[in-house]
Design goal:
This protein is of the alpha/beta class. The chain has two domains: 3-243 and 451-465, Rossmann fold, CATH 3.40.50.2000; 267-445, Rossmann fold (3-Layer(aba) Sandwich). It has 18 helices and 19 strands. The chain has helices at residues 18-30, 89-92, 108-126, 136-139, 141-148, 171-174, 195-202, 211-216, 227-232, 266-280, 302-312, 327-336, 350-359, 375-381, 392-397, 417-432, 434-445, 451-465; strands at residues 3-6, 37-41, 54-64, 67-76, 82-87, 130-134, 153-158, 166-168, 188-189, 192-194, 205-208, 237-239, 289-293, 318-323, 342-346, 362-365, 385-388, 399-400, 408-411. A nine-stranded mixed sheet has the order 3-4-5-2-1-6-7-11-12, with helices on both faces. Helix 3 (108-126) packs parallel to helix 5 (141-148). The longest helix is centred in the N-terminal third of the chain and has 19 residues, at 108-126. The chain is globular, with a radius of gyration of 22 Å. The mean pLDDT is 97. It binds adenosine-5'-diphosphate. The site of adenosine-5'-diphosphate (ADP) has 19 residues, from helix 1, strand 14, helix 13 and helix 14.
C-alpha cells in the first residue's frame, strides 16, 4: 500500500516541538510494516548536504488562486523512512518554519495552501492509497484529495486544537479553497476560514494524541470553539496515545550524556546530576533537582511556575528551567537566574534537554491542557518522576504513586500555583523516602511508552479504512 505521512516539521530536519518528534518516530515505526513516505517542506534552514537531500529532477505543476505553481521535488533516505521534500521559494525561503519566535508569517495561509495543493497533486500522480495529515498546516489537503483523488483514504491527526489555522474569509480565493468548502458544516468559522475544521470534516478518520484529550476536546472547556463540531464527528474520532522513540531517548546509549545508565546502574544517573549541578553552579547535590523543559506559554503552565518560583526557591531543592516563549515569562525567569538553587537556560537546545532529563530527579509539567505531552514520557524513561497537572495525555500516562499503572508520579489537584507548590512538597517528601522514591523511578523506567505501541494502533486504523 502506498502511504504518505505529511507534516510541517519532522526531527532531525526541522523541529519546534512534539509534532517534530512524532513525525520522525511514527513513520519510522510504521515503515517496519510497509513503505511509508514522510512529506515535508524543504525549508531554507534544512541542511541539504548533512541530510543527503537530493533533487529528484522532477516537479509538480498545478493551478490555484488564478496562478500556475511549480514545486520541485527532493528526497532523502534514512531516519527510518524515506522523506519527500517539497520546495517552492514562497513556502521555504524563510528563516523559521512558521514565523519568528512567538509570531506567525502573514502569508502562512498561502504558504501552507501551496504545500497542501502539492501534497494532493503528488498523491494523485503516485496513486497513493493512504494520506496521513497532521495539524492545520496540512488540513487543506483533505478537501483537495476528496475533490481530486477520492480513492485516497485520509487520516487527519490533531496534535493541538489550540492552533487551528484561522484566516480571514477573503484568503479563501487565493488559497484555492472552494466556496462550497466554506460553509458551517465545513471550513466556515464565525465568518472566517478554519483549516482545522476542513481536516476534521473531510478526513475518513480523525485522531488525536491521547484518549483523554479525545474526550476533553468534545467539551466546551477544552474544545476551543470546535467541541460541538467534534461531537458531530465523534464517530470517526480516535484517541491514540503518542509514544517516544526509545532508541533516541535512551539513557543507556544517549551520546548527549557524560555517563550512561539503566535502571540497574542508577549510580551513573547520580554522576550525571552531580556533573550538571557543578557546571551550572548549583552546588548541593543532596537536594533533588527539579526541571521544567518546554515552551514558555500558558498552556505549559509557565505562568504558574513563574508565580510559584519564589516560594519554591525557599525549599531545599535545585530547579533548572529550559525554554523559550513569551517575553514576560522569559523575563521572570531571567531576573531570578543565579539565585541559589535556580538556573534558567533560555532557548531551544536538544542536547541540553537530554542532559536535564538525565540529571533530574523530578520533571515539572503543570500544563493547563496537554494533548499528549512527550516530556513526561521522556522523563520517566530517564528515571525522573513527573509532577503534573493531570489533563489530556498527562492523565493517561501519570497515575498516582502506588497505583501500579504505567507510569507513576505526582498529580496536582488543580492548575494553580498553590497546588504546584503542594505537589513539590509531596515530591520532596517522596524524595526523602529514598527506597520508595527509587522504586517509583525504576517502575517508571520499565513502562512502555514506545512509538511502536502507537504505530500498532495506527496500523489497525489504516487497515480499517483500506
Ligand atoms: P509541545 O506542545 O511543545 O509540542 P510536547 O511535550 O509534545 O510539547 O513535546 C515537546 C518536545 O520538545 C519534547 O521532546 C521536549 O523535550 C522538547 N522541547 C521543548 N522545549 C525545548 C527546549 N527549550 N529545548 C530542547 N527541547 C525542548
Amino acid at each position: 500500500m502506498k502511504r504518505l505521512f505529511v507534516s510541517a516539521e519532522a526531527w532531525p530536519y526541522v523541529k519546534t516541538g512534539g509534532l517534530g518528534d512524532m513525525a520522525h518516530a511514527l513513520p519510522e515505526a510504521l515503515a517496519k510494516n510497509g513503505p511509508i513516505t514522510r512529506v515535508l517542506p524543504l525549508y531554507a534552514s534544512i541542511d541539504r548536504q548533512k541530510h543527503g537531500i537530493e533533487p529528484l529532477g522532477r516537479s509538480l505543476r498545478f493551478c490555484f488562486g488564478n496562478r500556475e505553481w511549480e514545486v520541485s521535488l527532493f528526497s532523502a533516505e534514512g531516519n527510518g523512512a524515506d522523506t519527500l521534500f517539497l520546495y517552492h521559494p514562497l513556502l521555504c525561503d524563510r528563516p523559521h518554519p512558521y514565523g519568528p519566535p512567538g509570531g506567525d508569517y502573514e502569508d502562512n495561509d498561502l504558504r501552507f495552501s501551496l504545500f497542501c495543493h502539492a501534497v494532493a497533486a503528488y498523491a494523485k500522480a503516485q496513486k497513493t492509497e493512504l494520506v496521513h495529515l497532521n495539524d492545520w498546516h496540512t488540513a487543506l489537503a483533505a478537501p483537495l484529495l476528496k475533490r481530486d483523488y477520492p480513492a485516497a483514504k485520509v487520516v487527519y491527526t490533531i496534535h493541538n486544537l489550540a492552533y487551528q489555522g484561522i484566516f480571514p474569509i477573503e484568503t479563501a480565493g487565493r488559497c484555492g479553497i472552494e466556496p462550497a468548502w466554506v460553509e458551517m458544516e465545513t471550513m466556515e468559522f464565525y465568518g472566517q476560514v478554519n483549516w482545522m475544521k476542513g481536516g476534521i470534516a473531510f478526513a475518513d478518520a480523525v485522531t488525536t494524541v491521547s484518549p483523554a484529550y479525545a474526550a476533553e476536546i468534545q467539551t466546551p472547556a477544552y474544545g476551543c470553539g470546535l467541541d460541538g463540531f467534534l461531537r458531530k464527528h465523534a464517530g470517526k474520532l480516535h484517541g491514540i496515545l503518542n509514544g517516544i522513540d526509545t532508541r533516541f531517548f535512551n539513557p543507556a546509549a544517549d551520546p548527549a550524556l557524560p555517563y550512561r545508565y539503566t535502571p540497574k546502574s542508577l549510580a551513573n544517573k547520580r554522576r550525571v546530576k552531580k556533573r550538571f549541578l557543578t557546571e551550572a553552579g548549583l552546588n548541593d547535590d543532596r537536594r533533588p533537582l527539579f526541571v521544567f523543559i518546554g515552551r514558555l506559554v500558558e498552556q505549559k503552565g509557565a505562568d504558574l511556575l513563574a508565580e510559584a518560583l519564589d516560594a519554591l526557591l525557599k525549599r531545599p531543592l535545585n530547579l533548572a528551567v529550559l525554554g523559550e516563549g513569551e517575553a514576560r515569562y522569559q523575563e521572570a525567569f531571567a531576573a531570578r537566574n543565579g539565585l541559589p538553587g535556580f538556573r534558567f537556560f533560555a532557548g531551544y537546545d536538544e542536547a541540553l534537554s537530554h542532559r536535564l532529563y538525565a540529571a533530574s530527579d523530578f520533571l515539572l509539567m503543570p500544563s493547563r491542557f496537554e494533548p499528549c505531552g512527550l516530556n513526561q514520557m521522556i522523563a520517566m524513561r530517564y528515571g525522573a518522576v513527573p509532577v503534573v497537572n493531570p489533563v489530556g495525555g498527562l492523565a493517561d500516562t501519570v497515575h498516582p504513586v502506588g497505583a501500579q499503572r504505567c507510569g507513576e508520579g505526582i498529580r496536582m489537584e488543580s492548575p494553580d500555583a498553590t497546588s504546584l507548590i503542594q505537589s513539590v512538597d509531596t515530591a520532596l517528601a517522596l524524595y526523602g523516602r529514598s527506597r520508595r522514591y527509587n522504586a517509583v523511578r525504576r517502575f517508571d523506567m520499565a513502562c512502555d511508552f514506545s512509538i511502536e505501541r502507537c504505530a500498532r494502533a495506527y496500523e489497525t486504523l489504516y487497515g480499517s479504512l483500506t
